[in-house]
Every structure is written in C-alpha cells, then in structure tokens.
Amino acid sequence: MKISDFQTKDVINIVDGKRLGQISDLELDLRQGRIEAIVVPSYSKFRGLFGGGSDLIIPWSNIVKIGSDVVLVKMEELRTLQDEKEAASYRERTEQADRRGYRDV
C-alpha cells in the first residue's frame, strides 16, 4: 500500500463512531522500518477557518482494521500533537528541577 492510498481513507473511531478525518502524515521508526503512528489533522469549527488546530496522533497499535475506504481505530482518549508538546515540555521542566534537587513547576 502506498502512502497516497492511505491519505484518501477516512479515519473512524469505533468507540464513538466519529469521523476523525483523513491521514495527513505518518510517524516512522526508521531504525526498525515500521510505522509508529498515523497523524490526522484536527480542526475545530473556528480554528479550521483561521488555520489553527492541532494534529491527532494515533498509535499504530490502535488501528483495528484498514479497509478499502476507511481506517478503523479504537481511541478512548484522543491525543493531539499540542498535548504531546505540552507534556514533553512539562517532563523536561520536571527533570531539570529534579536535577537541581527541587521542584518549582
């Protein structure tokens, strides 16, 4: 299957039946040669008009089935790229505080 074939499929969450969008990107593990996650743009009603929004990161392990027209995923919680960046920033600040011997975050 080609990446371009992937990008034409709708991504559906089987937990609530919602259409999440179409795949815009993939996260790859180049060392092991496998797909780690699919990326789906997430646009709210207002952010979509003004170019905002963040991307949904869906781990490969959450893909239930890849059909001819859709990709079915099981997502209890939706993680966005913005959430990931905020979590990484918090972890970094916490680790720095731990190295200094105190926590100020």
TrEMBL record:
Pfam families hit by this protein: PRC
Superkingdom of origin: Bacteria
PRC-barrel domain span: 2-74
InterPro entries referenced in this protein's UniProt entry, alphabetically: PRC-brl_dom (IPR027275), PRC_barrel-like_sf (IPR011033), Spore_YlmC/YmxH (IPR014238)
Organism: Paenibacillus rhizosphaerae
Name of this chain's protein: Sporulation protein, YlmC/YmxH family
Coiled-coil region(s): none
Residue segments, region Disordered: 85-105
